[in-house]
Amino acid sequence: xxxxxxxxEINSNVRQNYNLSQKTSNGKSLTGFTLLELLxxxxxxxxxxxxxxxxxxxxxxxxxxRDSRRISDLETLNGALALYLSxxxxxxxxxxxxxxxxxxxxxxxxxxxxACTVNSTSTAIAGTGWLPNNFSSISGGSPISRExxxxxxxxxxxxxxxxNSSNQYELNAKMESAKYTTGANNLGAxxxxxxxxxxEIGTLLTIIP
Length: 209
Known about the structure:
This protein is α+β, with helices and mostly antiparallel strands and 209 residues long. The protein has helices at 7-21, 35-56, 58-87, 178-181, 187-190; strands at residues 100-101, 118-119, 159-163, 169-173, 199-202. It has a domain at 68-202. Strands 2-1-3-4-5 form a 5-stranded mixed β-sheet. The protein is elongated.
């Protein structure tokens, strides 16, 4: 009489045969994804990547980073000019009525149509930089190691400086990100100056057109 098999033995034999069928001739197990599974995963990753790009907008983040640097640079220069006035001389550097820009070639003022008077990319702090003040003559030493330049420093995006005969001054720069050019954070429209297309800082914000 042939010996029968219990359900447990049958199940064990089936699993053993299945495991054997999953091995190659050298005894290694075969594992991996089917082509369909790979296509599904790739499609999901592509969709997620597109969503991330649309939501995060890395180009806008880069613009915001450059604008943040512009704001920081002008605030640094504003502090240096205020220290110069109080410590060195009541007379600022440069010629009253001239417009100094941080660019090597002729161009218009940031956010305007009037041409820069003096163009230079020099960052020297001893009176020969694009901003013509001798910061090295400050008694405690210059508060800056170099005069900053705009992150792109192009025809459109650059820094500008001007003073009047009363030794009041203005610094300005053009913002490029949506964060700082639209809505309540629009620096040009909310800084108290006369140019809604540029961020203005200083002691008189109507010197630069």
